[in-house]
Amino acid sequence: MIDLVLGTHNPDKVRELAHSLLGFPVRLISVSELGDWPEVEETGETLAENSLLKVRDAVRHSGRLSLADDTGLEVDALGGAPGVRSSRYAGEGVTYADNVAKLLEDLRGVPAERRTARFRCVVALAEPSGREVCVEGVVEGRILEAPRGAGGFGYDPVFLAAETGLTFAEMGLKEKDAISHRGRALRAAREVLASWCGWE
Ligand code: ITT
């Protein structure tokens, strides 16, 4: 068993990351458990840059192997927005519902076939030695005209996953993990961890 620090302050993400890592020989520690530490500013222009900012901060804070995730929703009809700005699409300090409302408003009148979108998740791993790696997971889908389902978080109720015809909010943790951006990135991250830790 090794300690792995999760460099995220979002409890919804922590729940999914923990589910994806079930059965893997790691003891998860959330940065929030490590005491007061200011949240790192996400000043990067790409998901990879922001995931590295977060993971390096977690390593500085904890002195341990760490993992961070930066995720964006890319909507084709909006030129790839909200993308790297997904958490603050409707402004600073907004709720998930505010972001979803702005997204639906910006897509008002856009027909179903032009509402294609994808979630992209970059997971960064880093060690105190300076060794670091980013892996990515993507899932294709489209944005509905109204929310569906009560599970998940963020944009899940309006994201219809192409593979299942369900929104992520209509799926359980396990079903979402099987096809989601985060589930895919985490499976790649598990391989990196296995190789770094000599478990192969
Ligand atoms: P940390 O930086 O502390 O990890 P965050 O919520 O700010 O938390 P991001 O910068 O990656 O994380 O923001 C991405 C936003 O995209 C997030 O706030 C949600 O609104 C949305 N999001 C991320 N993952 C999602 C998912 O699996 N399903 C739906 N929406 C998601």
Low confidence ranges: none
Helix-strand string: EHEHEEHEEEHH
At CATH level 2, the architecture is: Alpha-Beta Complex
Mean pLDDT: 96
The Rg value, from CA coordinates, equals: 17 Å
Label the structural class.
Answer: alpha/beta
Number of helices, where a helix is a run of at least 4 consecutive DSSP H or I residues: 5
Fraction of helical residues: 25-40%
* Number of distinct beta strands: 7
CATH topology label: Maf protein
How far is the first residue's CA from the last residue's CA? 15 Å
Give the C-level CATH assignment.
Alpha Beta
Hey, roughly how much beta strand do the residues contain?
15-25%
Bound molecules: inosine 5'-triphosphate
The global form is: globular
Q: Characterize the biggest β-sheet.
A: 7 strands, mixed
How many domains? The number is 1
Give the helix/strand layout.
Layout lengths: L1 E5 L4 H10 L5 E5 L16 H16 L3 E10 L6 E2 L12 H11 L9 E11 L5 E12 L15 E3 L11 H7 L1 H16 L4
Parallel strand pairs: 1-2, 1-3
Antiparallel strand pairs: 3-4, 3-5, 5-6, 6-7
This protein binds inosine 5'-triphosphate (ITT).
